[in-house]
Fold this protein.
Amino acid sequence: MYDLLAAGPGRDAERVCIVADVAPAGASPRFPGQPGALAHHWILRGPDAPARARSLLAAHRAQSAWLAPMPAPPPSDDIPPETPVFGQAWREVFPAGVGITAAADFPGGGGENVTIVDIEYAWDPTHEDLLRSASDLGGVPDPTWAFHGTGVVGILAAGDNGFGVIGAAPLATVLVQAPFFEADAGFDYDVARAIVEASAVLSAGDVILVEQQFYGLDGEFVPASFDAGVREAIRAASAAGIVVVEPAGNDDVNLDDPAYEGAFTDDTGVLRVGGGASSFAAIPRARVASNYGSLVWVQGWAGDIVTTAGPPYTDLFYPRDDPRHIGPPPFVIARTAKHQAYTASFAGTSGAAAMIAGLVGVIESVAIATRGAPLTPLEVRSVLAEAGVAAPDGEVSVGALPDLRRVLRSWLVP
């Protein structure tokens, strides 16, 4: 059994997460003011925090304790081989894509009835194709990986504005929640808190996309659900009817491995997304370095996704000497090349999960328009899995690739 209080990669040796019925001395609530299971999560800080946590466990005054996760880099957006695609094939009719284009035929098909929150390090709100696509919700962004959030927001909801790209749900309200929060000694990285704060502004049928990953037991990258606090935050959101989408991660990890002590077989209601090969690959829907397991429900493309981007992902369009001006006076905004980057190679389960989150937004928006109520998170998982095509025989499964048109025709519209 692994010692979750031992120093290791991606673990904060001076911040310990604790589950206890009564607040330990010197601890602060991890989720202030939250009811139920979330009310029993606490944070101990300081160089002696691990030793104090061990004492609490030995005295049976805490149920569990672990070093708080530290931020890991987002999954790589460059899974070779790169295949430049100068269109958005992922939006096309299944099996060429996932059928986003069919949504235009259905009420609510632009995602206009839902809000999607992307839990993301940062994004570029001045990108020419995202000026009206999203806004910040809260947290403190870290611009180091802004290109990643820019790509994800583009997949979710880049506007249908006559240039660039179009997102899966271009009329949805998209909010970006950063997972860093001001603390006495700087900033805390806390994905669970980000989920809780996002949930507070959402309603049943809305979507949370958790574009984060954690270091696993031996430094491998695994889903954020590795943290018990994240699992409880997801469980609470799911119980409120909010669909939480989580990338499976890109490290060839079997998430059912007993070493993880059930962290990834605890069904919180999350919609976990694996990464499969695009329709351009020799074997479409085959697993592409994706983590896998029994609770990886569906897959999205893990490569060849055309979307908005930023340096270093500028392979599709990056006119260094082509400044742009967007909008009529008095709203003229001078553009420089760094705000015009596009890529044809966004990849990994980050791209796959963003694709599926956008698709879920469309499904829920159409459900609200046609049925008067959204599907539950478990219903969403079920219809996506049933309306998809799994990996080819002989391939390790990362779930079925959904066909949105089939979902809308067979499950939602009379």
